[in-house]
Amino acid sequence: MTNERLLKRTIVKEEILSQHLKENRTLRIYLPPGYNEILSYPVVYCQDGEEFFNFGRIATWANQLILEEGIEPFIIVGVEVNTKVRTEEYASFGNRFEAYLACFAEEIIPFIEKKYPVRRDSSERILAGDSLGGSVSVHLALRYPELFTRIISLSGAFYEQSQHIIALETDLSWMNIFMIVGLQEDNYATDTGVYNFVELNRSTKKLLEERGATIHYEEKDGRHLWGFWQKELPAALMYFLQS
């Protein structure tokens, strides 16, 4: 992946004022090779936007998939987060959770769709997130199923509160989710406690399956780190983007 073509990429920064969060939010937008405003593109929205670009190397992976694997060009929108309030925004029990969901669906999506030629069908939008970013992506889809039906969850933090919300659903046949978790994530300390992410993902997979969701599920050797998730990103993107 040291090929010059793969490292040459276009990333634009945008800032929006969120009425829901009462603050500015920074977005990083990756534009694919050959980007042309008269075309239209599938779009991947990432929680932890800065980390997806810096640690997940998602722009480099995207270039490789488009230039070498023949994947249709796509746009990536990384939604940045202040790590100090990340749990408050991403966790279903957080005090900024409702405002964040509303900001994402009602402010960020319209802003991007007005300014960039992204497709507006739910089958052409993908939500991606790691840990709590994975679970908040599921919550966004549950709250706004007309907008989001496809989710990439990298070691999703599906705590008890999130599982309870999923359990209340009766029909998730519209949802398609790529889930992966590392086998060494069975005793991981977070800011809200120590969790067995393997068991959390297994039980969440069962809840989703029972409600008819389409699931691609994998457990692999790996820890709760970007070193693990970065290697899995190409397969996750290919799952939804290869025609």
Give a quick set of tags describing it:
10 strands, 8-stranded mixed β-sheet, alpha/beta, single chain, two-stranded antiparallel ribbon, globular
Please describe what this structure looks like.
The chain is globular. Helices cover 39% and strands 24% of the residues. Strand 1 (10-18) and strand 2 form a beta hairpin. It is built from 9 helices and 10 strands. Helix 3 (58-68) packs parallel to helix 9 (226-241) and helix 7 packs parallel to helix 8. The chain has an 8-stranded mixed beta sheet, sandwiched between helices. A two-stranded antiparallel ribbon has the order 8-9. The chain is α/β, with parallel strands linked by helices and 243 residues long.
Write the layout of secondary structure elements.
Blueprint: H1 4-7, E1 10-18, E2 23-31, E3 43-46, H2 49-54, H3 58-68, E4 75-79, H4 86-90, H5 97-115, E5 125-130, H6 132-143, E6 150-154, H7 160-167, E7 176-182, E8 188-190, E9 193-195, H8 197-210, E10 214-220, H9 226-241
Parallel strand pairs: 3-4, 3-5, 5-6, 6-7, 7-10
Antiparallel strand pairs: 1-2, 2-4, 8-9
Short description:
It contains nine helices and ten strands. With about 240 residues, it is α/β, with parallel strands linked by helices. The longest helix has 19 residues.
